[in-house]
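Attaching the record inline, Q. Sequence:
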Amino acid sequence: MDTSEFYGKEKISRILLKIAPPVMLAQLIQALYNIVDSLFVGKYSETGLTALSIIYPLQLLMIALAVGTGVGINTDMAYYFGIRQEKKAEEVAGIGTPLAVFLWIVFAAVCYLIMPFYARISTNSEEIIRDVVVYGRIVCVVSIGLFTEGVWSKILQARGDMKTPMVAQIAGAITNIILDPILIFGMFGIHKFGIAGAAIATVIGQIVAALVVMRKAFVRSPEKSCYLPHIKRIYQLGIPNILMQSAYTFYIFGLNMILAGFSDQAVTALGLYYKWQSFFFIPLGALQTCIVPVISFNYAAKDQERCKAVLKESLIAGMALMFLGTLCFEFLPVQMLSTFSKDAQVIAIGTNGFHYIGVAFIPMVTSLIFPVYFQAIGSAVKSSILTVVRTMVLFVPLGYLFSRFGLQYFWLTFPVTEVLTTLVGFKFYRSQQA
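Structure, as predicted:
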């Protein structure tokens, strides 16, 4: 079945069941990598675990630039496939590699220079500062695999190939998991690198993943005259995703700064939430990835009813799956936290926080799916506004406000933010349908 038949006529539930599982499996392996990575670092040192929490926003920023550019390429290609202009779609794919390399060079240079400053504004501990600089410089400067794989995987997904990106993610994550203990603790005669070993394992895994997708996704550059109009459209479509992901960087950095006013253990507890979040958000992340080309295709084909049906079914499925996360966060927080840390203060702070955060999971489905929907139909302004409202207008200011009443009340930030963002999303959706 060709793309037009598949996206335009196939039953929506069957589309999601066909293209979502490979994405979910790849994200599951990636989530396991995140968990195992933190597990090994936590066993090596508690300060290393805090350093990972501090560097996490910068890693999100890298992902935002790489994947956001890839999403722009993916959405643009899906649009051209929808109007049966395959040549234009391949021109867009050919621009992907030069864009990825350019983004990597700029990001690597900036991060190398600012890393010591970033570490010092995040903590007063000299030991944690040293770990942040060592780990951060390696994962940011040697991030070419992350940037190229992020773009190449989206090119393949636009063509309907979900299997190869899945294999790439699995290969990269397994490589990382295998190398983590070897390089961190020094095994089989290899030097003990400590936290630098975790960073080295990470970038090697990213390069392995990039090499897997490179063979099918690399397309020769088109004529230079094609660059400007295509790049403009790529970022018109991709900026909402970049803003959404980048805003995560700034709001997590902001929340880290607020929690640093209480203790380093509070920062660590928040970091451990985001490690577990990567696992529990697998279904939601897969839905976000999979509905974009489907909605974009049908919107270009002027099938509004099918776009609405895709949104409805993805919201129902997302809420049903995220309810399982709510149950775990409400009833198993101690077990989840003690997997990484034996620090009683980290566990106590995190247990209280997990109870509040678990309540936020259901409204979080709508607050995260709506921006993706508006992005897919080309409503970049609405998508961007929702992202900005959630991450900048609400998260950090509310975090600061609630923190004034004490650390316990800080965690109210999560459910309140998701409910308010959902209400704004519904308002935008109703106005778009009118």
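Residues 10-433 form one domain. The mean pLDDT is 84.

More tomorrow.
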